[in-house]
Write a structure and sequence with these properties.
It is a single chain. The protein is 47% helix and 16% strand. It is an alpha/beta fold. It has one domain: 3-Layer(aba) Sandwich (Ribose 5-phosphate Isomerase B, Chain: A), CATH 3.40.1400.10. α4 packs parallel to α5 (113-125). It starts with a strand and ends with a helix. Bound molecules: D-ribose. Residues 8, 10, 42, 65-67, 69-70 line the site of D-ribose. D-ribose (RB5) is lined by residues 8, 10, 42, 65-67, 69-70.
Length: 152
């Protein structure tokens, strides 16, 4: 498993904790930054991680900003990405099982470190359920395809 990580200034400290946690679990990490408190723009990091995922440089991505919301909105602009912002273990389980999310976004101003790492562990442990959920994911991707082909 290879995971690309990205964060803005609000998320970088938690992103580094997630990096340590993943490395300790034997997950290969690709760290796209940022690496300080200096103010940066979250869409830049969302784009780097989303491009890693769609180009196969990573299997999945994890993005951290203050709320996780800006990262999710940004990453979901990249065709092929299904980014889900989760602040509970149930949400992250559903994001993988039902939505086949390929990027998890987290809010460093929403979650403490322990809660965030538990969510990451559920993310890693949960597979897509397929079946009727595949039909629905196919419909999501159909909307994207139609938008790209100017059919909306
Ligand atoms: C940065 O202040 C903040 O807006 C950002 O981290 C994030 O929460 C945006 O969604």
């Amino acid at each position: 498993m290879r995971i690309a990580l990205g964060a803005d200034h609000a998320g970088f400290a938690l992103k580094d904790k997630i990096k340590e946690h993943l490395s300790a679990r034997g997950v290969e990490v690709r760290d796209e930054g940022t690496n300080s408190n200096a103010s940066v723009d979250y869409p830049d990091y969302a784009r780097l991680v989303a491009e890693d995922v769609i180009h196969g440089r990573a299997d999945q991505g994890i993005l951290v900003c203050g709320t996780g919301i800006g990262m999710a909105i940004s990453a979901n602009k990249v065709p092929g990405i299904r980014a889900a912002n989760a602040s509970t273990e149930f949400e992250v389980q559903m994001a993988r099982e039902h939505n086949d999310a390929n990027i998890l976004t987290l809010g460093a101003r929403v979650l403490d470190e322990a809660a965030a790492l538990r969510i990451v562990d559920v993310w890693l442990a949960t597979n897509f359920a397929g079946g009727r959920h595949q039909t629905r994911v196919d419909k999501i991707m159909g909307v994207e395809r139609d938008a790209l082909e100017h059919k909306l």
